[in-house]
From TrEMBL:
It comes from Saccharopolyspora endophytica. This is MBL fold metallo-hydrolase. It comes from the Bacteria. Gene3D superfamilies: Ribonuclease Z/Hydroxyacylglutathione hydrolase-like (3.60.15.10). PANTHER family: METALLO-BETA-LACTAMASE FAMILY PROTEIN (AFU_ORTHOLOGUE AFUA_5G12770).
């Protein structure tokens, strides 16, 4: 068996182990039947690549979905392409598709639930991974490709900036693109919900633990300073094509109104 990948959260570890710290954390869960493991070769035997347009951005994942089910996004710029967030599945079809579009200059990930096989990706494209240092403890497979950054903002390439909001995890980060009318890539640090007219903020989604009001207030203030019209969430079809800035601010105000009434 290759390097172990948790079947529940998708985290790849550097060596075999019985426990998954990500799943044992209060933001996740360990299945009733116990911890289950797989590896990348097994995933390749059972699944296939999924590549599709996500509001003008290439979405990358697999069918059927695996673990948490998020998809990655290829954010293209004149200075090179950046992979936003990460998915456990990686095969030659995905590598060829990205290479045909110019390859990668870096990888950036919103929070530890999506670290998954990030080292496999970094080695396939020979690029660094940008992670916020506040989430250093959650890395399952340490590697020199990981570049920890600190503070509130970090520009990867001209026009692409990471912003640490601290929602969901201490290092919870979103990616802002200044191109055009501006776009925000959020994973589930800012969660796109079904009505597409609002977003959500949670400390744990599966365990229904709300985020602290002070954290959401700070996140709203940081995002209010940015210009963006569209917003891309973590899963397939979670895109707000226009009006996203106003939606985020309205949603934060609604959230704070409800939690502060308690």
């Amino acid at each position: 068996m290759g390097l172990p990948i948790c079947a529940t959260c998708g985290m790849q570890y550097a060596e075999a182990r019985e426990d998954c710290p990500i799943c044992e954390d209060e933001r996740q869960w360990v299945p009733r039947e116990g911890q289950q493991w797989t590896d990348l070769d097994s995933l390749r035997a059972e699944r296939s690549a999924a590549l599709r347009d996500e509001g003008g951005v290439l979405g990358i994942g697999c069918e059927p979905k695996f673990a948490i089910g998020q998809r990655a996004l290829l954010v293209r710029t004149d200075a090179g392409n950046v992979l936003w967030d990460c998915t456990a599945y990686l095969d030659d079809e995905i590598i060829s598709a990205i290479d045909d579009l110019g390859g990668l200059v870096g990888i950036a990930i919103s929070h530890p639930h999506y670290y998954t096989t990030m080292i496999e990706w970094a080695r396939a494209f020979d690029v660094p991974i940008h992670l916020h240092e506040a989430d250093r403890q959650w890395v399952g497979r340490p590697d020199p490709a990981i570049r920890f950054w600190s503070g509130t903002t970090h520009e990867i390439v001209p026009g692409l900036t990471l912003i640490n909001l601290g929602v969901h995890f201490a290092g919870g980060t979103v990616l802002h693109s200044a191109a055009g009318r501006g776009s925000l890539f959020t994973g589930d640090i800012v969660q796109v919900i079904p009505d597409r007219a609002h977003v959500g903020f949670m400390y744990s989604y599966p365990n229904l633990i709300p985020e602290r009001p002070s954290v959401v207030q700070r996140a709203a203030e940081l995002l209010d300073e940015l210009a963006f019209d569209s917003l891309h969430g973590a899963w397939w079809d979670t895109v707000i094509p226009t009006g996203a800035h106003e939606i985020v601010q309205r949603s934060a105000a609604r959230y704070l109104r409800f939690v502060r009434e308690a």
